[in-house]
UniProtKB/TrEMBL annotation:
<keyword id="KW-0479">Metal-binding</keyword>
<feature type="binding site">
    <location>
        <position position="182"/>
    </location>
    <ligand>
        <name>Zn(2+)</name>
    </ligand>
</feature>
<feature type="binding site">
    <location>
        <position position="114"/>
    </location>
    <ligand>
        <name>Zn(2+)</name>
    </ligand>
</feature>
<dbReference type="GO" id="GO:0006729">
    <property type="term" value="P:tetrahydrobiopterin biosynthetic process"/>
</dbReference>
<comment type="pathway">
    <text>Cofactor biosynthesis; 7,8-dihydroneopterin triphosphate biosynthesis; 7,8-dihydroneopterin triphosphate from GTP: step 1/1.</text>
</comment>
<comment type="similarity">
    <text>Belongs to the GTP cyclohydrolase I family.</text>
</comment>
<dbReference type="GO" id="GO:0005525">
    <property type="term" value="F:GTP binding"/>
</dbReference>
<dbReference type="GO" id="GO:0003934">
    <property type="term" value="F:GTP cyclohydrolase I activity"/>
</dbReference>
<keyword id="KW-0862">Zinc</keyword>
<keyword id="KW-0547">Nucleotide-binding</keyword>
<dbReference type="GO" id="GO:0006730">
    <property type="term" value="P:one-carbon metabolic process"/>
</dbReference>
<comment type="subunit">
    <text>Homopolymer.</text>
</comment>
<dbReference type="InterPro" id="IPR043133">
    <property type="entry name" value="GTP-CH-I_C/QueF"/>
</dbReference>
<keyword id="KW-0378">Hydrolase</keyword>
<protein>
    <recommendedName>
        <fullName>GTP cyclohydrolase 1</fullName>
        <ecNumber>3.5.4.16</ecNumber>
    </recommendedName>
</protein>
<dbReference type="InterPro" id="IPR018234">
    <property type="entry name" value="GTP_CycHdrlase_I_CS"/>
</dbReference>
<dbReference type="GO" id="GO:0005737">
    <property type="term" value="C:cytoplasm"/>
</dbReference>
């Protein structure tokens, strides 16, 4: 396939994911976090320098280090498999055989085509076949996969796949509704639009089960 600049632009502007896995190289974890921060710091310095910014200004002097730390430790910290949340699952002793929905999980991710934020909500559901998972683990799984340069479709699939493995069932679903700042604040500048992606596994492919899940998402929770 010809990977010329036009082709690359088109992939990026249309937010096309090329794989269900993040395109991470084999040598991604040869450098330590500290070595990465040191290297990225110089890159950020170079960007600001090239843009003509005065890096001796007090307001800017700490920015390269701050951005480098933020990339490695925070917004892209989920690239490191060591940070994957341990799936604490339990036997379903109380025999709850219905659907469990965890809705409105906050998503903070980063578009891998523009490195701008993706902000939204994830709604996750599963039907237990004997194993249950701690509720906060579902939030942590969403958070872990969000902290990568991402594409929303891939994020949705990764959340479902991770829960399918942890729970030992295909009956898992996820819907994400999110705003992409690359669409909202630049390019077409459409501040109203949001992107919805969904992945329905196992019983959720069944129309009635899927509708039940989507109806729960619509519930207006008061407390
Ligand atoms: Zn983008």
């Amino acid at each position: 396939m010809a990977h010329n600049d036009d082709f690359q632009d088109e992939i990026g502007n249309n937010h096309i994911a090329t794989s269900a896995k993040n395109p991470v190289r084999k040598d991604a974890f040869v450098l330590t976090d500290d070595q990465k921060i040191e290297s990225i710091k110089k890159d950020v310095e170079n960007i600001l320098q090239t843009l003509g910014m005065d890096l001796t200004d007090d307001s800017l002097s700490g920015t390269p280090n701050r951005v480098a730390k933020m990339f490695v430790k925070e917004i892209f910290g989920g690239l490191n498999p060591n940070k994957k949340p341990k799936p604490s699952t339990f036997d379903n002793n109380y025999k709850y055989g219905e659907m469990l929905v965890e809705k409105n999980i906050v998503v903070y991710s980063t578009c891998e085509h523009h490195l701008l934020p993706i902000i939204g909500r994830a709604h996750v559901a599963y039907i237990s076949n004997g194993t249950v998972i701690g509720l906060s683990k579902m939030n942590r799984i969403v958070e872990y996969y969000s902290k990568r340069p991402q594409v929303q479709e891939r994020l949705t699939m990764q959340i479902v796949q991770e829960l399918q493995i942890a729970l030992g069932t295909d009956d898992v679903a996820c819907v994400i509704d999110a705003k992409h700042l690359c669409v909202n604040s630049r390019g077409i500048k459409d501040i109203e639009s949001s992107t919805v992606t969904s992945e329905f596994g196992g019983k959720f492919k069944n129309l009635e089960t899927r509708r039940e899940f989507l109806d729960y998402i619509k519930l207006d929770t008061k407390f």
